[in-house]
Records
---
Amino acid sequence: MARMKFLCDADRCIECNACVTACKNENDVPWGINRRRVVTINDGKPGERSVSMACMHCTDAPCAAVCPVDCFYTTADAVVLHSKDLCIGCGYCFYACPFGAPQYPKAANFGSRGKMDKCTYCAGGPEADNSPEEFAQYGGNRLAEGKLPLCAEMCSTKALLAGDGQIIAQIYKERVAKRGYGSGAWGWKTAYKEDIAT
Amino acid sequence: MIATPLFRHLFPALLAMLLCVAPVAAQQPSAVNPTASSVTEKQLLDALKPNSTDTIAGRVSIPDVRAGNLIQPTGVEFRAYQTTTIFQVGAIAIPGMLALLALFYLIRGRVRIQGGPSAQTIVRFAWFSRFVHWMTATSFIALGLSGLNLVFGKTLLLPVIGASAFSAMSQLGKFVHDYVSFAFALGIFLMFVMWVKDNLPALRDIRWIVQFGGMLGFGHPTADRFNAGQKLMFWATILGGGTLAVSGYIMMFRPVSFAISAMQLATVVHGLTGVVLVAIILAHIYIGTVGMEGAFRAMGRGTVDLNWAKEHHSVWVEKVARKRPKDISGGPAPAPAE
Amino acid sequence: MTSFIAAVLAVVAISVGASFLLETQQQTVDKTYATSGTRVDLDPRLSGGVAPKH
């Protein structure tokens, strides 16, 4: 099986937020929960870069390590998923996650924040593939249909790449070689403990 | 109609921007090149955060401004704490304390009333004091068990009872932990108000500590209402419980202005204080029940045997005899003062 | 004994009370992060109309 990864080419991202919208629509994500968001750093300054960030589906994921009820699991495609039936909404995964991926449906300032929600790499959850139960809790399951996550598929500048880690790394390397610069694969060192030499 | 006034506003602005930006751009030879040649991720990160522990944040167009945190490096330390530190501290402190208490029981046995039980009793704790003690105690047991479940449950209980049963139990435990905390915090506050004046350090406490309360047979040091051991227990409970309440309510109410590193710190402080206080309270439970003859009835009935009181709280007994002689009963043990 | 029973009852009462009280204050994220919506009351200089009263 492939080792699925996300790669955001910050030199291409134009902060159009189409990935965010695609994710919301495909997975029926409620208002206020942001499985994917675009962060602009150095906004308005020289060297401004936008990065589309979601769960990176880390190797040896910190969220899974700190979860007190062990609700995370990694699929054969190396996608990090979780079971909302097991989640108790303690919030530890949010504190451990380097990318701020875990989201909670309740936000008033006290304990009962509800079941955690995060990017599923458009791969649903533990329920049967593309069942209504799966959709209600986790959203679509494009991976089961042989499709890649919609955020990357819809990216207008192809800044956001999803797919087998080796292939998208190769695409990125070729890009960088051709245009002569590249700010690197955002978050890869943190998530996958590797970087793309450019 | 619309375009003309808009343009009239925009054009000077655009002109101003061009005039300002051009020289600024020309002056940027250092970290970041505006004409977007090679700007590596590392360069950008270094420019954005002088310290390696800072969160790298940017602007987001969604209302939740905290979503602007792109990468927070302290998650690594939080993970190390959650998977290793708290587990090790708890695994040493709690079984360690149990082993110590078992050893103490084997060597010293039950601390008896040396003079034997007398026919007289003395009022030790009023009804309200006992009520507050038991309110704090029962809530602490509920909080301790549900808290320890989050630390050790995954290792000890999950493989035994299965994922869904363990999750249901932990979910219940989390709600219990959140809501029972209010009774505990109230109890800590009331105990502080009720007992602080009897728990201030005194000179005779030094002798008590040196002789270890006479429990190993170096004579019986004098003590007022509370001896040095009880004072230490009091302050451990008040300071530990207070720390737990403050850090716990930070975790629960999550003040918007708190950075993620502050929330992680609150979680770390809460967990470590929690396991240590559980270990300390185990010693308290031991000495209040099996460890010492005649101790439990202080919190049970509210009265204690006069001989017990004379041995452990000689100064206090003298004071009571002088000020409130009615608190000392004459004949055989009276009906429970409940 | 009565102090103990009263204490247990007090713990239950305080906890249940706190849970109800806090639950009324709980808020779903769609409300917390609600924006005031799209501005339809355009500046009259742009729309040519009269600004609606707030």
---
Amino acid sequence: MKEVILHLENVWKIYKMGDVEVPALRGVTVEIKKGDFVAIIGASGSGKSTMMNLIGCLDVPSKGSVFLKSYDISRLPESDLAAFRGKTIGFIFQQYNLIPSMSAFDNVLLPLEFLEYDDASAAKRTREILTMVGLADKMHHRPTQLSGGQQQRVSIARSLVANPEIVLADEPTGALDSVTGKEVLELLHRLWKEEGKTIILVTHDMNLAKYARTTIELKDGQIMRVVENHGVKK
Amino acid sequence: MRLDKCLKHAFDMVLHSKLRSWLTIIGIVIGVAAVIAIMSIGAGLQQEINSQLNTLGGDLLTITAGFSRGGGFFGRGDSPPGSFGGSSQATSKSVILGRTDVQTLKGIPDVAVVDTEIRGSVNVSYLGKSGKVSLTGVDQSVWSQVTTTKIKDGRMLDSADQNVVVIGGSLASNYFTQPVGINQMLTIEGSAFRVVGVLDDSSTSIYMPIALAYQIIPDKTLNEYDTLVVKIKDEEQLDASIAMIEGKMRLARHVTNSTQDFSVSSRKEMQATRAATMSSMNAFLLAIAAVSLVVGAVGIANTMFTSVLEKTKEIGIMKAIGARNADILKIFLFNAAFIGLVGGIIGIVFGILLSGFLPALMGGALPFSRGGTFVSLNSILLAIGVSVLVGIAAGSIPAYQASKLKPVDALRYE
């Protein structure tokens, strides 16, 4: 039995729209094991973005608890949570979310600066990881000087630089053409296989689910089913 | 995040919004430059006052007719009587200083010499150019002992002098089309006078023997004086001497403390009063300058609020990848402090330039600009400190707001 890295216990998330309360998640309970490749799929409005925010410790539940490596995230003080998040989770966003005024190198370096790495090892690590994603020759380009696929690879490099246990990817191929999208997914797959990362992929695209070992299907804020795909091998 | 990294990111933020940063910086530049320039006037004034207080004249008392209660130096001492009036009984014709007063003063043991003076405005011309200047008739036998101004050229008035004058430095050098030299003839109210001395000052005054002045200045009655200048024997006993003089003169003039119709003021006291007035005037100007600094601070706050809005998404990203609230707070605070610092430094440069031009700009018209200006190291350090603090203070609310953004909301912001 593998260690549970993430555990959602009867999680509710309710948004207030004026006087109306809109529940985005309704009593979700799920466990994600260390080293798994999980796809959270669902149509828009199914609550998958909300779930991603909670898994990524970007938000706290209205009811219930989120445990990340046995810490209850709603009980952690803000600064501890931020540091914990920086160390444990790497984010890959649909719109890359790179900082436009910084070069690829500086974007990737940023998480290490927040974690107060010393300059030399941070720079070394940044170069290594950018080389790994195949951008050794583009380190000093600004995001605007890079193609979508390259930007997404910078974003992947940034998510990996602090060597997190979990990589959380929100529609990572959403803004890419199918060829580049496939490359990005294969990169994620390699990370899972070779580096032993826990990959959590949030998507509306059922086709992407075939890369994942576990598929969690959401509908109307509830988990419809959890499917283990034993065909996906490490 | 380490402090040096926060500083670097703050600095990058300033660099990447150049135009807006510079516009904000201009606001601070104006405020700091105004404060520096005005402080330089204040410092120059202070220097002038200090040097005056240390020069001669501490043993001189000026007695004028009339008495103004509640202080104020206008209408007393050096200025021509009546020109400022000064809420006094001097307007009453019957209040005069005359021979009896001089006799009284001469009978006081503390008094060394008494100079009798009258003063008026006269027409003067030289080589076709004419103007109206102040003329003082003095007792030429003692005048040299009661004047604190030095002679630059020629000599002081002498007891045997007839039809000669001593003139102020400015009247000699640049009042007329050509400089007036020693032994040149000035025409004053139609009569010719020979210049025997030029004073080492910047006045346009003329001094002549009092006997002649009675004939030259209109509406003067012989043996009535505008001012009596008294030199006392012991400067250390200034207050006692003033008390004694006032007492004796009250007796002689048949007045009491409450009906006293003359006033005795010391040069020291007048200078102190002048210093107090000037420094309150300076404080007033400084307050106005400070207002522009406040406006500059509001500019910083405004820029920072805009910047926080603009960078909301970036703040969200930074938080997602591990930024603490404190990191965001520091970056934005340093950004504001940078704007303040750069504004402060440029403002100091402009302020120093401005303070150099200020005396010329005001043409010496304002009395407090006479001492020139002086930019002290203290005022520079103060200006830098204040501008950085202003930046931080103005940036604190926006920075706090930025730091408290919820990552999920910030990320969703477009």
---
Amino acid sequence: MLEVRNVYKEFKDQKVLKDLDLTIEDGKVFGLVGVNGAGKSTLLRSIAGVYDIDEGSILFDNEVISDDPEIRRNILLIGDDPYFSRTSTIDDLVAFYSSFYPFDHEAYYKYLNMFALDPKKTINTFSKGMKRQAFLIMALAIKPRLLLLDEAFDGLDPLTRLDFKKALAELLNDDKVSVIISSHNLKELEDICDSFGLLENGQIKTSGDLDIAKSAINKYQVVFDKEMTIDDFKDFDIVNFDQKGRVSTIVIKGDQEVVEEKLNAMSPLILDVLPIDFEELFIYEVETRGTLHE
Amino acid sequence: MNKEYLLYLIRSKKHLSIFMLIVTMLPTLLYVLTLPTTSSYASYEAIEMTLYAYIFIVMAESFILPFVYFSFLQSKRALDTYYNIPISKPELIGTNFIHMSTQIIIFGIIGTLIPVLMNIGFLNRPYMVLALYVLTSIFAIIVSLFVLSIIYKTNSLFDSIVLSLAYITIPFLIVTVLGVFDNHQIYGLTNTFDWLNPYIILLMTCLAPLLNVETLIGDVEMVFDIEVILLIIEALIIGIVCFISIKKDIKRRKAEVSETVSSNFFAWPLAIGLITMCLLFIFVFGIDDTLTMILSFAFVFIAYLIMTFIYRRKIRFTKHDLLLFGIGIFASLTILAIANATDGFYLSRSYRSIDNIKSFDIYVSIEDGQSDTEVIGYDLYNEMTMSITDKETINDVIAIIDDLYERYKSGEDDYVPYYQATADYSSSLYISMFISDDDGRRFDFGHRIYVNDDKDIDDIEKIVALIEDIDGTVSASVYDELYGSISENASISEVRKTVENWR
């Protein structure tokens, strides 16, 4: 289990992580989301032991990660732009990573075939997506207890994304493996994550089970016999309001049954509940705080 | 040291290792291919050249390789990988350093031993090559520690290379400042700070061993000379300081600083400060007229602007920068004023007493008239070195030399006599004279006599008289060995006057 407790991290005068708390149980796939510059990569690097935190503690299985090599043997970070030397091949990556981590060569060849990469070719000649695949193969062969993937889906084509998600699912068959994925591709995260955390102003503002979070915000399409304004819905915790003629599309926070009951009390001609996806959830959560920059 | 990582380095850097082996062996290969068998001197010279080349290559490797081995410290991407792998930071750095240094040392011993073993008979003191090898290896490690300490103080590969070069150049600037101060501010004396130069130059760790090769392989006793021992101690201190600095920086330096401006005090700020101050002092001490001095300040200011631009990678000049430059000018002018008021910090015209001179060595060699190279340390030429204390013998020797000179002058002999006397410790007054022709070319004739008493002064007067007989001009220098030259290019009458003053 990963426990991030009251973590502070500052770059020069900029406080990136502020009193950040986060717990991720074993066997979970955690989607880390946030606007650009929210500190996602900083958090992942801090967990991986790359960055020293200024205050607080990061524990894995109740052990402080920091500079302890034995703890770090369980944790692997695949950064958003993974490092390789100019002449490195996938074979060289295998030589490097297998020197430090238990390395499943059978899994390596399996995923190498799946992604159809040439292990003798220099990685420098690969496309962005292929480079990412090469490192994902390493991660899948190392099978770390905690896998940290920064911008995991960046540069992957739809088919490769599908293959990657399959491979990740196989990795997660071991119920002790946890994965933290940061990505801007929330649609992809939605398919694979079972919990999420919204990083904002250096803190995890919203986190928890993705399905529960999604059910806590719903989009209601309501038609009344007259044109309504937002003031007519002041009793609701409105996240977003859109009015086209007599059709109101309202995103409301709160228990679906309770909201529906209150809306029905207003005698709508039509009331539909539309599901929201992870991307919408992210946008609404961020919008309500007024910190969406992109 | 981490065994798994070391094995990885051995496997992954095998191409670099082979390249290093070839480069380190190059002088030896050249030596073997052009193996001289004609004379012991030729063999000696070839070995000496091989060892020079070997030291140069080892020093170059120990300077360049840290940038290859530790460039990951300057890359955010690389640190994501290297600081994540299950190795502690001290182990990561230590293992890289051990792999790098071991190669330099092992390849070095192969490169050194082969020519020595092949020609061991020609060497009077083959074990000195071992001493040279050990010292070179130590120096190589110190150089690598020095470069690594700079890498740790900087945040980009460019900065680490530029600042490493800057920090090995700054000692040259300091020597220049002292030289200019000596020549322009200390009247009547020169070479005041010569004794200090080797210690300052040693700060350019890469070059120091090269300066000492001949000492090491030429004269066994020099290794145990206090000057050499002090130099070795200074080198070790530099190594220890760098080691402590690296050890602290391994803990202190944060991954996130890589690829940012190298604002650590010991990176750009100190280098810019030292270079600017050295330039200011060179101009302030060396220039007399105000207009030229103002122009030189403008030149230093432009240099300061350029360095600040390279430091920050943007054209931004703050009030703080301007203030620092102003303080620099003020400080240099203040020191100049103090130097003027105190006759060069009371160093001008300081003459030593000659009372405590007890003995001196006299060295005589006969050189090939075509050669201007003096060969010291092995018996290939007619030469003699004797340590004498009684004045009678000294006069006998001078008589022999004078006789040799007379033979040369009359054309009986093609050889040019060269003789000089050197005191066995540095608290003597002496006079040296070289005879030049009308074009200012110096003949291979010199006479240096140390002055202990009136009798020595008599001898000098005899020499002066001898020189006065010769066609052509005379260039004479009067020295105080501790404080340097009292007067240079003195006329013979000035020499006479100085000698009379001594009396």
